[in-house]
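Input structure tokens:
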């Protein structure tokens, strides 16, 4: 297993990149532009369908595993997103982080333009500038990694996301982080099976976490889905939606696997709950 990446290094890189972008476009300018955008798409409705909704995560590379070759051209992300929407995917998540995932905000804007479903900005969000920036490029949902944020900053960023009409997705990995997410006022929680700093996967996290969540909280299982079998397992443990990335992207036919996941999640036999 490759050596873990230090959290401090990840956060330093994020802040360095934000500072460079802010030097080019001021916070006041990006803030004003974000408030003039058309209203966000309805992510909550997409997450609260009967059965288990499917979110596909689009990224040009995977840390520790390298680039995804067929996604290296300018229009490849948008073309793939359009194909995935055609087979019924309910939301898209686009990696915008450059250093580890080779992503960009321009990728997210292109994916949004090519589709009609709600858009999740996949990045490490630690600064208010990023939230306004994400709205400018088409985000409807913005994630917050609970493990990486002090409580006051977590609550402040959540409030800013919601002030722009977007949904805050609070990502957690253990019951302690769940308590902090609920304290912050989170209503949509992503139970992430992947470590922040390594390629370690803990699919059992959802079983540890769901019992501590209020019934009203929307639950998204993030990571570890390779086939309809895992979708059904997560749904049986209380997931309202699953987010799947690499297994779809590296499948022989990404559209075929996505179609199978959507069909399984919408089948009457799929466990479901009402929120």
């Amino acid at each position: 297993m490759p050596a873990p990446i230090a959290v401090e290094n990840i956060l330093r890189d994020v802040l360095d990149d934000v500072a460079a972008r802010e030097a080019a476009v001021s916070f006041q300018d990006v803030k004003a532009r974000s408030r003039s955008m058309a209203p966000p798409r309805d992510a909550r409705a997409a997450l609260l369908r009967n059965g288990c909704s499917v979110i596909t995560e689009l990224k040009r590379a995977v840390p520790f595993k390298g680039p995804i070759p067929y996604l290296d051209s300018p229009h490849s992300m948008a073309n793939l997103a359009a194909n995935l929407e055609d087979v019924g995917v309910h939301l898209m998540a686009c990696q915008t982080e450059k250093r580890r995932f080779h992503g960009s905000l321009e990728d997210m804007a292109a994916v949004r333009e090519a589709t009609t479903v709600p858009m999740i900005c996949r990045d490490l969000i630690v600064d208010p500038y990023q939230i306004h920036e994400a709205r400018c490029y088409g985000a409807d949902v913005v994630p917050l990694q609970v493990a990486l944020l002090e409580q006051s900053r977590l609550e402040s960023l959540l409030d800013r996301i919601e002030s722009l009409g977007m949904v805050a997705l609070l990502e957690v990995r253990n019951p302690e982080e769940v308590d902090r997410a609920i304290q912050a006022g989170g209503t949509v929680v992503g139970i992430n099976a992947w470590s922040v700093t390594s390629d370690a996967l803990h699919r059992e996290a959802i079983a540890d976490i769901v019992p501590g969540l209020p019934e009203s909280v929307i639950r998204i299982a993030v990571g570890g889905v390779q086939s309809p079998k895992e979708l059904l397992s997560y749904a049986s443990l209380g997931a309202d939606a699953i987010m799947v990335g690499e297994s779809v992207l590296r499948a022989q036919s990404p559209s075929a696997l996505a179609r199978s996941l959507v069909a399984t999640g919408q089948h009457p036999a799929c466990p479901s709950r009402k929120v």
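The chain has one domain: 7-266. Residues 7-266 form a domain with the TIM Barrel fold (CATH 3.20.20.70).
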